[in-house]
Task: inverse folding
C-alpha cells in the first residue's frame, strides 16, 4: 500500500502511478481531497499505520515543521519504507535515524535534509538503510525553463494588478495592497 502525504502537483502525479502498479493508494492532506474514487483520503495517522511505502510530499511551513517526528515514525508499520523528496524541515532527522536504528523502518530514500546545503546530514546519508541523492529536481533544464517562464507570468500578473495564478496564501498577502491589488478573501 502506498501512502502519499500531501496531494499537490507531485502527489497528483504519483497517485495514478501507484494505482497503475496495482497498489492501494492512501492520501493524507487537510487541504486537498482526491477526486479519483480509487484513492482513499484518510487522516495522517491511518496512512502511517497502514502504508508499506510512505512518500512525504507535504508543503513545508510552520505547521508541518517536523511533521515526521518520533511519534509519526512510531505509528508507521514496522519495516515500512519512507521517502522524502519534498523538504528537509518536514523530518526530524534524529527521530528518523533512531527509527532506522531500532528497525522500525525498513529503509529511507531522500534527496533533501537539514544539512547546510539542504541535503541529508552526513550521519543519516551514511546509514546502510538510506539512499540519499542530490536534490536536482529544480536544476534540470526543463525545470529551470519552467521556473523562469512561471516567474515572468507571475510578474506580469502583478503588473496588471492581479494576484498570480496558484499564489499560496494570497488572502494573507498584506503587501499586495502596495501594488494596488486586493487579495481574494481580503476586505477591500
Result:
Amino acid at each position: 500500500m502506498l501512502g502519499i502525504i500531501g496531494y499537490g502537483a507531485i502527489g497528483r502525479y504519483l497517485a495514478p502511478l501507484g494505482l497503475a502498479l496495482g497498489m492501494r493508494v492512501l492520501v493524507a492532506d487537510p487541504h486537498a481531497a482526491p477526486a479519483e474514487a480509487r484513492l482513499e483520503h484518510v487522516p495522517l495517522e491511518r496512512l502511517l499505520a497502514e502504508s508499506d511505502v510512505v512518500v512525504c510530499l507535504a508543503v513545508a511551513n510552520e505547521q508541518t515543521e517536523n511533521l515526521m517526528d518520533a511519534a509519526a515514525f512510531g505509528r508507521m508499520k514496522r519495516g515500512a519504507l519512507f521517502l522524502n523528496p519534498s523538504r528537509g524541515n518536514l523530518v526530524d532527522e534524529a527521530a528518523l535515524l533512531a527509527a532506522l536504528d531500532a528497525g522500525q523502518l525498513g529503509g529511507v530514500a531522500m534527496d533533501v535534509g537539514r544539512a547546510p546545503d539542504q541535503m541529508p546530514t552526513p550521519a543519516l546519508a551514511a546509514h546502510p538503510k538510506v539512499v540519499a541523492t542530490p536534490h536536482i529536481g529544480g536544476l534540470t533544464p526543463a525545470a529551470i525553463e519552467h521556473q523562469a517562464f512561471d516567474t515572468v507570468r507571475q510578474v506580469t500578473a502583478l503588473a496588471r494588478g492581479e494576484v498570480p495564478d496558484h499564489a499560496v496564501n494570497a488572502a494573507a498577502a498584506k503587501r499586495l495592497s502596495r501594488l494596488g491589488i486586493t487579495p481574494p478573501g481580503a476586505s477591500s
Remarks:
- The radius of gyration is 19 Å.
